[in-house]
Amino acid sequence: MKAPLPNAPTDRTRLRRFSEKADYDAATVHAVLDAAPLAHIAYQMNGAPMVLSTLAWREGDRVFWHGSSASRALKAMRDQAVCLSVTTLDGLVLARSAFEHSVQFRSLMVMGQAQEVTEGKEAHLQAMVERLFPGRWDQLRPMQPQEVKATMVMALDLSEASAKIAKGGPTDPDEDRAWPVWAGVVPLSLQTGAPLAEPDSAEGAPAPQVSWSL
Amino acid sequence: MKAPLPNAPTDRTRLRRFSEKADYDAATVHAVLDAAPLAHIAYQMNGAPMVLSTLAWREGDRVFWHGSSASRALKAMRDQAVCLSVTTLDGLVLARSAFEHSVQFRSLMVMGQAQEVTEGKEAHLQAMVERLFPGRWDQLRPMQPQEVKATMVMALDLSEASAKIAKGGPTDPDEDRAWPVWAGVVPLSLQTGAPLAEPDSAEGAPAPQVSWSL
């Protein structure tokens, strides 16, 4: 049995459209977040809605992102309401009518107040590196105090979150299914290519084990 | 020479951080938008920032998206300020220090007022289908009036837009380059897989020519 999120769904996160695709379980929310490294965060600056696209990573029941301490976006969202979204595009669904075309996806929406993390920043940055490149942190030139200072780390509780997952093929009504056109799914996935070493990369150092197919 | 966008950059779209990666030319903005089908749109609902992730497509100097006429999100953003973002994740950049790690990406931000399109909706939906699946529209069961009615089409001018593109490898300072760790780039791309036909897909109908590597 999957553990429910503490406060989900709220009025803001409860899905109205295609609610059968909604999932408020922590395990599902965590899985979507762990699968995709890229997040888009809506916030307000000078009263206008803005989007920040950024890498994000999960630690327990919080999601984190980072940037320059001089970032206008991060400063603007500190202690303010934000909405973080993660979406993977998993397939194009081709039906017999334009109307029934759709996409397969996994998506996530988290609402809450963005908080600047001031304690233990380096440990969170380590968690980010280790999430992408397990084992790499200890191989790197150690982080310097001025680098930690120049980096802002932000966090958001996952307590108000919902996932939405769309799988499967086209759902044409019966009367359309004999229409003489190809129908099915074109899968999409974010894939890693072969690592390209820098010309002056350390001789004999093994390339990192980064292999995804999201 | 690339044509400049009419009003770019404005104070809101001019990039401050890594401004050498910024590009306000229409040709670059169009290219990023044409490359990636998924957009994230920030808007406000009940005073809170929200994100809608949706497919988007370009026609001339406007970007379009669509959804159900009953969509709360689309109704909330109608005639309101929005910020549309498109981001492709093109590579992970591994440096000798955690601080110099980065990503290769192409991204786009468009600000403006979202407008509902009420005239010629079907032609815009055709443009969407043709952008993803050239030649497919004419093969489909024709769109029915109630399907057009059930669909809301939205548009946003590209007049206030900026692109940001990050290529290349790690930029470690000289004193770090001999550190004994692998350094380079792990490419990432969104790729199509082999089409999976529905069991009752029309016999002999050719699979669509959808082949990407974004």
Describe this protein's structure:
- Two copies of one chain form a homodimer.
- Helices cover about 15% and strands about 40% of the residues of chain A.
- Chain A has helices at about 25-35, 70-75, 120-130, 145-150, and strands at about 20-25, 40-45, 50-55, 55-60, 60-70, 80-95, 100-115, 115, 150-155, 160-165, 185-190, 195.
- Chain A contains four helices and twelve strands.
- The first copy, chain A, has a single domain (about 20-185), classed as Electron Transport, Fmn-binding Protein, Chain A (Pnp Oxidase, Chain A, Roll), CATH 2.30.110.10.
- Chain A is an alpha+beta fold and about 210 residues long.
- The interface between A and B is large, with 89 and 89 residues.
List keywords for this structure.
homodimer, 214 residues, alpha+beta, Pnp Oxidase, Chain A, seven-stranded antiparallel sheet, four-stranded antiparallel sheet, 38% strand, disordered N terminus
